[in-house]
Amino acid sequence: MISNLAQGVQAFTSNVYLVAGDRTVLIDTGANFDVVESIHERVDDLDAVVLTHTHRDHVGNLEAVADAFDVDVWGYDTDIDGVDHAIDDEERVTLGDHEYVALHTPGHKNDHLCFYSADAGVLFAGDLVFQNGSFGRTDLEEGDRETLIQSIDRLLEWIDGDLEAMHTGHGPSVTNEPADHVELSAQMARRA
């Protein structure tokens, strides 16, 4: 079961996905709203927090969540404050009831990860790609358009037409031909 805890929140935040199951995980913590209360309304405990990347809008609530649930935080770069454990490129991680492969996808930020499960047909895309061909900003520190394009191309090598849902860092999740949206993002990033 995947729930976006930031849905309907009127604040500057990322999406926050609660993935319930054998290993209940929070993907990103968002910022500027009480995500701890939202978690408590749905589950009693968390097994881990997993980060797509560490921009402020994705980790603003990190300390509050870590304190409230006494939970470890996993991300790409343990040199960043708050990240307890590293997730390596192509490492397998359990989110909910499924195994996902973590894909290091820099270009928006150096520590960016996407998580893809072929079995579940689900992609957590972070801020790499969004619906309708949108893609992550490259005008922020650590942003680089050519690197972002390479990361989108790499993602396309992993996903296929069986992809059923793409959960993005901002905006709505994509459940109608999500792989086509990723392909369109690769095209649009080249044109911009």
UniProtKB/TrEMBL annotation:
One Pfam family named in its UniProt record: Lactamase_B
Listed GO MF terms: hydrolase activity; metal ion binding
Top-rank taxon: Archaea
Metallo-beta-lactamase domain span: 13-170
Entry cofactors: Zn(2+)
Family matches, as InterPro entries: MBL_Glyoxalase_II, Metallo-B-lactamas, RibonucZ/Hydroxyglut_hydro
SUPFAM superfamilies: Metallo-hydrolase/oxidoreductase (SSF56281)
CDD domains: metallo-hydrolase-like_MBL-fold
Keywords from the named record: Hydrolase, Metal-binding, Zinc
Protein name: Flavoprotein
Annotated source species: Natronorubrum daqingense
